[in-house]
């Protein structure tokens, strides 16, 4: 009996050791290759990795004695667990990418986050990108950081050329960097409902201001319809020819094949110094970080060295965990699903719009956002009544939809934006914006359309009274 039990025990131990070795091999492969694994990791594997990494930080050493001013002490046990016992953050005072001697585990997390983010950029279609850095700040602050870095090479410049997009943070990022925005107004496309920048206006602005006075051209890819991505391929050619920095606001464009393709092509035929994207919008993590990518390693190194002080590792931990949970196949499948759902949503919204003699605006170059006209309400209701559609949707637990009322202005930092939220002084009609972002489910689309129809029925009946 004892002998039999011993045999069972030894065979069980052998299986357990094999399982442990398998997990350790996965971990070693990740640390060696620093790429998103082909297939997703289970939660136990991910926790195993972070338990190992946290044990490498000096504050978690068994006999650690710290007599400095910053020794990774954390009072709350809940906070310790929330951060996987990693408390030193990332970087050093002179470089956000530098390793910390007393925090080997945290430094590895930083390296993994940057390397895996670059791998995700390559998987998304921007294969020519050479380097990136994950910075724990908003997209707007990351744009500011890029402009401050450009200032080193062009200290006398005073203006940033910016094609209008009605989103406050990118406009304020220019002001925060200490520059004057030169706003390039959009035009309605002759063949459809799209709003687009024109290369003629860009070249006129460059000629009027003079190249020495221009820090950079800031273009935008992902945006709310009816605006479409800027023609960054031809802008890149102009910037290369005139030797002007080109900064691309790619906030939530990484999830879109078409956008990634034009960023890649722009880098091949012209000049793109940096492109900036949010982690929460592209990878379904909590708000907290931005990926700054470039086609020149030296630019990212320079930005990393400009960042003042250490930084929080929390959003980098979130990104590493999420990419491990997705795996390459999971991430690519999510991007593929988003593309399919966009076409489905657009078709269903068009059918609903037709019931009320409205339409979905024709914006074929915007494959993330779409807009449904509310033109019948413009003549029947006051602006305040039209905006009630947005609050009706929100109180029914539908978030993200935006009601844009024709012709409303807004004052931001002393500058008046006529037709605020529509990217244009006087767009042809009011409209409702929706978007198909990564992670959206088909059932959410169906539920939204059902609620929207109920709300439209109420508001259109009110307009006919």
TrEMBL record:
Its cofactor is pyridoxal 5'-phosphate. It comes from the Eukaryota. Substrate binds at residues 92-93, 100, 310. TRNA binds at residues 268, 396. It is an enzyme of class 2 (transferase). The record marks 69 as: May act as a substrate filter by repelling compounds with a negatively charged alpha-carboxylate. It is found in: Cytoplasm. GO terms for cellular component: cytoplasm. One of its GO terms (molecular function) is tRNA binding. Pathway: Aminoacyl-tRNA biosynthesis; selenocysteinyl-tRNA(Sec) biosynthesis; selenocysteinyl-tRNA(Sec) from L-seryl-tRNA(Sec) (archaeal/eukaryal route): step 2/2. GO terms for biological process: conversion of seryl-tRNAsec to selenocys-tRNAsec; selenocysteine incorporation. Signal peptide: none annotated. The keyword Magnesium does not apply. Its EC number is 2.9.1.2. It catalyses: O-phospho-L-seryl-tRNA(Sec) + selenophosphate + H2O = L-selenocysteinyl-tRNA(Sec) + 2 phosphate. Pyridoxal 5'-phosphate binds at residue 70. NCBIfam families: selenium_SpcS (TIGR03531). This is O-phosphoseryl-tRNA(Sec) selenium transferase. It comes from Romanomermis culicivorax (Nematode worm). The lineage of its organism: Eukaryota, Metazoa, Ecdysozoa, Nematoda, Enoplea.
């Amino acid at each position: 009996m004892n002998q039999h039990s011993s045999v069972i025990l030894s065979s069980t131990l052998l299986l357990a050791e094999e399982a442990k070795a398998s997990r350790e091999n996965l971990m070693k492969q990740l640390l060696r290759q620093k790429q998103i694994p082909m297939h997703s990791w289970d939660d136990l594997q991910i926790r195993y990795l972070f338990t190992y990494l946290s044990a490498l930080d000096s504050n978690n050493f068994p006999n650690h004695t710290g007599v400095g001013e910053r020794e990774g002490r954390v009072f709350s046990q809940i906070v310790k667990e929330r951060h996987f016992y990693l408390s030193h953050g990332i970087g050093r005072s002179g470089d956000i990418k530098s390793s910390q001697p007393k925090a080997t585990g945290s430094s590895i997390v930083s390296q993994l986050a940057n390397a895996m983010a670059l791998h995700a950029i390559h998987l998304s279609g921007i294969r020519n990108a050479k380097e990136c850095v994950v910075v724990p700040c908003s997209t707007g602050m990351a744009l500011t950081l890029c402009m401050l870095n450009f200032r080193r090479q062009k200290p006398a410049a005073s203006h940033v050329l910016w094609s209008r997009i009605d989103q406050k943070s990118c406009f304020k990022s220019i002001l925060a960097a200490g520059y004057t925005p030169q706003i390039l107004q959009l035009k309605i496309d002759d063949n459809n409902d799209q709003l687009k920048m024109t290369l003629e206006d860009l070249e006129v602005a460059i000629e009027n201001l003079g190249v020495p006075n221009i820090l950079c051209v800031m273009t935008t890819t992902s945006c709310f319809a009816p605006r479409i991505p800027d023609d960054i391929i031809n802008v890149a050619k102009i910037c290369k020819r005139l030797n002007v920095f080109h900064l691309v606001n790619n906030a939530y464009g990484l999830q879109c094949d078409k956008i990634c393709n034009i960023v890649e092509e722009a880098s091949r035929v012209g000049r793109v110094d940096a492109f900036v994207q949010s982690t929460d919008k592209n990878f379904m993590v909590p708000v907290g970080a931005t990926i700054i990518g470039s086609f020149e390693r030296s630019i990212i190194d320079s930005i990393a060295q400009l960042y003042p002080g250490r930084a929080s590792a929390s959003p980098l931990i979130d990104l590493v965990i999420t990419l491990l949970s997705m795996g390459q196949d999971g991430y690519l499948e999510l991007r593929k699903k988003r593309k399919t759902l966009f076409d489905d949503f657009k078709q269903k919204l068009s059918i609903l719009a037709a019931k009320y003699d409205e339409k979905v605006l024709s914006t074929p170059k915007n494959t993330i956002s779409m807009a449904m006209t509310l033109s019948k309400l413009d003549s029947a209701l006051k602006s305040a009544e039209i905006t009630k559609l947005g609050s009706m949707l929100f109180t029914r637990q539908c978030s993200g939809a935006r009601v844009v009322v024709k012709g409303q202005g807004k004052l931001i930092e002393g500058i008046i934006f006529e037709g605020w939220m529509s990217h244009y002084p006087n767009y042809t009609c009011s409209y409702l914006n929706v978007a198909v972002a990564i992670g959206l489910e088909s059932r959410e689309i169906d539920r939204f359309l059902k609620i929207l129809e109920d709300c439209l029925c109420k508001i259109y009946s009110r307009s006919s009274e």
